Amino acid sequence: MSALSRTRTRRSLAAAGAGLAVVGLLSACGYGSKSDSTSGATSAAASGSATGAKLSADTVHIGYFANLTHATPLIGIQNGQFQKDLGSTTIKTQIFNAGPSEIEALNSGAIDIAWIGPSPSINGYVKSNGAALKIISGATTGGAELVVNPAKIKSIADLKGKKIATPQLANTQDVALLNFLSTKGFKVDAKSGKGDVSVVRTDNSLTPTAYQTGAIDGAWVPEPTASKLVAEGAKILVDEKSLWPDGKFVSTNVIVSQTFLKAHPDVVQAVLKASVDTNAWITANPAEAKTDANAALKTLTKKALSTSVLDAAWSELAVTNDPLASSLQTEAQHAVTAGLLAKPDLTGIYDLTLLNKVLTAAGQPTVSAAGLGTQ
Fold it and tell me: What keyword terms does UniProt attach to this protein (predicted)?
């Protein structure tokens, strides 16, 4: 790590420690739409002081998870890159456990822009008849596995009668598990989680303890939760990358409220520039980025990852500006197969106009919406 980077990280983490209060979410709700349950997002705090160019909004509210699959905001918000690109616009953040509750926050106006998985994005778009959100960038590919207790589960057939955790009803990993079980002939009621395999919706922060106590026999979860379970003796039964062509699938993308996008395109572009700038830095400095991501997790969760868990988890994922739009129809079909969604029309779900403007300015290749939005 360079002296400049160490100084930047120390200063940003000190500011974050003084000003960032985070409350984890424990929300059970419908598939990415508003429900009678209220979101558990109760904490939003500025992540840094705002100085510089004046944009059209004084504040932007950004949501993301305390997961390595959300490495871009984890690193870029805390090291000051986002604030640098946003100038005098203040950043306020909310930390979520899973996508459906984050969609609720977007629908209610509590957040403007969010890092989130594809399944809640799809349903948030469909349930609003295309009015609620747009996917505006990719963020991460990979970083999700089905890990199991090897003493109880040695093969896919052994899943029958077992209890497998996912982060939340209808989040991206929940849909992936339900789809996988369906393709293997298991019958599970999607909403209750009851059936040949019991799907137990569990907050990521609680999943390792649930595994240790035997309350669950495995979990389909994002990183670093999967690697935490492996450190407790679990084994990887299915690496989700193995189920996709060339091992590439979108695990995290960036969405924006259409209302905010229309009112403040300059702010959205600045957030996308911050995302692209941060991803470029992560790609160029993988070792330092891994360390910075762990420092950010410690700030948010009060506990850093062990070196072995961090190394294993980091190796499972990669940041990307490309939303891998061609995989989204397959993600949607998984939700249909799982019984959580009727066959959707995703036309117009992407608006990559501002992202491609940022990429062009940075001398990087533009990306495609695969026929599902504005190029």
Answer: Cell inner membrane, Cell membrane, Membrane, Signal, Transport
Grouping H, G, I as helix, E, B as strand and the rest as coil, residue 339 is coil
Task: Write the DSSP symbol of residue 363.
Answer: T
Tell me the domains of the chain and their CATH numbers: 3-143+249-328+340-374 (3.40.190.10), 144-247 (3.40.190.10)
Q: How far apart are CA 184 and CA 159, in angstroms?
A: 10
Closest Cα partner for 226 from 74, 68, 371? 68
- Residue 285 pLDDT: 97
Nearest of 269, 256, 264, 275 to residue 124 by alpha carbon: 256
Predicted local confidence at residue 284, as pLDDT: 97
- With a cut of 50, list the residues of the chain below it in pLDDT: 1-48, 375
Q: Which residue has the tokens 């789809």?
A: 179
pTM, rounded to two decimals:
0.84
Q: How far apart are the first and last CA of the chain?
A: 38
Per-residue pLDDT, 374: 64
Phi, psi (5° rounding) for residue 125?
Answer: -70, -45
Which tokens in the block code for residue 348?
A: 């117009």
Distance (Å, whole) CA 142 – CA 41: 26
pLDDT in tens, 157-197: 999 999 999 999 999 999 999 999 999 999 999 999 999 99
SS3 (DSSP) at 12 = helix
Q: Tell me, what's the pLDDT at 70?
A: 97
CA distance 301 to 18: 14
Return phi, psi of residue 73, to 5°: -70, -30
